[in-house]
Amino acid sequence: MESHIRRAPVGEFEVDVAQYALVKKAFFVISATGTHDAWLKSFHQPLKSIWIYAMPHPDTSTTKPNVWKIAVELDTRKMVTLELYDTGYAPRGSVVLIRAFTEDQDPAGDFAKLMGVRAMCLGRKMLENVTFGTMLSRLQEDNLFMYQLNAGRGYRHWAYSVIKSLEDRFIYKPPMTPPLSKQIDEKMRLCYLANGNFFGRPGYEDELDNPMTIVAGKWSPAVESVEQRRALPSNPPTVSNGRGRTATGPSTQHNNNNNYRHWRGSNNRGSRQQRYYKKN
Predict the structure, then answer these.
(1) What percent of the chain has pLDDT over 70?
(2) 83: nearest Cα among 118, 109, 48, 58
(3) pLDDT of residue 27
(4) Chain center to CA of 129
């Protein structure tokens, strides 16, 4: 599998991120536990659960949406987060960052730490034999790595769309419970403090001046033209972009790691030289 390491702005700093042929448009943050090869191996790991969570709003002085992220639990109990991140650089300002939730060598405490920082959280078990790579392939198939903010808005719509993309085939639905996407649609319209309390007035589609109204981002024109050729549902969900899907899901077949070929950018910031090699 081809891969590339580059520098990317994250917050006030630039960090190393990896891109892989499996999901070319996603940025995997390189870290102590999220090394290039560790991410590569994680594609084959089964998933235990998926969570969508809100980071706490700082205070009640202003009403604006929380920052919402996706977290998945690997079978090793390691938590990995997916978030839409605005780099502030044109033309590709918004990217999907994938990173290890903690740098703990023993990931047994990852879930408890996630529960300790979130203001609101909803999650479900994953169906059996769903791997991290299979999930990422589905999101790429539905163009969720090509999503861009629209005038700084659209974070919640992206997170909702991720869950909507996965829940029909990959997420377990307990009997007599509503779909996870329906539950989060209701929760996302409120503003949450660190203690879990919420405030503000929920926003709906006829209240464009309400900051809690969920606003869609946008896809590139090339992606939109593809979507126009797909059959669209007659009654799309409230905050969905109404995009259809191909008849078959992403392939779960992967090549043997020993046959992967990688290409990496130089770690030297001042050099653009790239090197190619084949794993032994």
Answers:
(1) 76
(2) 118
(3) 92
(4) 20
CA distance 1 to 165: 25
What single string gives the DSSP state of each residue in 95-156?
EEEEEES---SSGGGHHHHHHHH-SEEEEEEBPTT-BHHHHHHHHHHTTTTSEE-BTTB-HH
| Cis peptide preceding 91, ω within 30 of 0 | yes
pTM of model > 0.70: yes
pLDDT one-digit tens code per residue, 117-151: 999 999 999 999 999 999 999 999 999 998 988 88
Cα(191)–Cα(59) distance, rounded to whole angstroms? 10
**Do residues 185 and 160 lie in contact, with contact meaning Cβ atoms separated by under 8 Å?**
yes
Question: What distance in Å separates the CA atoms of residue 51 and residue 183, rounded to the nearest whole number?
Answer: 12
- Burial of residue 167 (CB within 10 Å: 0-12, 13-18, 19+) is middle
Contact 131, 48 (CB under 8 A): no
Q: Read out DSSP for 46-102?
A: BEEEEEEEEPPPS-SSS--PPPEEEEEEETTS-EEEEEEEE---SSS-EEEEEEES-
Q: How far is CA 10 from CA 14, 84, 96, 205, 262, in A?
A: 6, 11, 11, 32, 24
Contact of 213 with 207, CB cutoff 8 Å: yes
Per the listing, tokens 């919640």 go with 156
Using CA atoms, how far apart are residues 180 and 174, in angstroms rounded to an integer?
A: 10
What's phi and psi for 52, nearest 5 deg?
-120, 125
CA distance 26 to 98: 7
Q: Give residue-wise pLDDT tens across range 179-218.
A: 999 999 999 999 999 888 988 888 888 887 888 999 899 8
